[in-house]
Fold:
Amino acid sequence: MNPATALVTGGASGMGLAIAARLARDGFRVVIADRNGPLARQEAERLRAQGLDVAERVADLADEAAARALVREQPPLAALINNAGIFDERAFFDVASDDYRRMYEVNLLAAATLTQEAARTMRPGAKIVNVASRACLGARNHPHYVASKAALVGYTRAAAMELAPRGILVNAVAPGLIDTPLLRNLTPQRLAAQLALQPTGRAGSVEDVANAVSFLAAPHMDFIAGQVLFLDGGKSLGGSGI
Ligand SMILES: NC(=O)c1ccc[n+]([C@@H]2O[C@H](COP(=O)([O-])OP(=O)(O)OC[C@H]3O[C@@H](n4cnc5c(N)ncnc54)[C@H](O)[C@@H]3O)[C@@H](O)[C@H]2O)c1
Structure:
């Protein structure tokens, strides 16, 4: 029997790459889809050299036709991981409507298009996992990003209700502070201030995210739908005072 196919968007870098590697180790045939062709090829090649079943496709998923074509060229997906996302810090009064549009095109619309196209052919037991962000609860200096991730959470719940009767389970993860190149750009003071808000006192790793996605995408996971799993070391619990 052919291995089950998992499509991981934004799989050339960061969390997407860790998720792709983890799902390949879980036994999926993994397709990395990313707009960064050279990086996608390099990383897929590296994973193949480890004996993992990984292919790469180059596509800008904000292009609706390209996103639909990408899904149509695959066998029915057993798992779709909508991880591709963009982030941008900008002062509240400087955010323009085009900034919102750009953020929505990738962080919400690409995921919605891919989900709709994939769900047409998915079989019962298939999983969709959307990578939202703890920022969906609110954060400063990126209202367009916060709004796009909150919209993705809303979409996750709507899609879960539509697709659960077909045996397709849709959930989301909401990572908090995760150790990626982005984090290494923070000043030591800013990083210390962020870590002080974490009951666990550390940033998450990309493997922490991959573990959670692996659980939500697993073939035996059969009774969770429309949930948002916060991967933030307890930050979303709020402050420690009364
Ligand atoms: N890094 C964090 O701390 C953090 C926290 C919470 C949520 N997230 C979310 O996790 C996801 C992954 O973040 P990351 O830190 O690994 O980012 P990253 O920048 O390392 O990786 C994102 C990948 O998505 C790809 N991508 C972006 N737009 C695309 C498009 N239009 N078409 C195809 N590919 C595209 C990029 O080329 C890149 O390879 C994003 O959705 C992000 O919003 C990240």
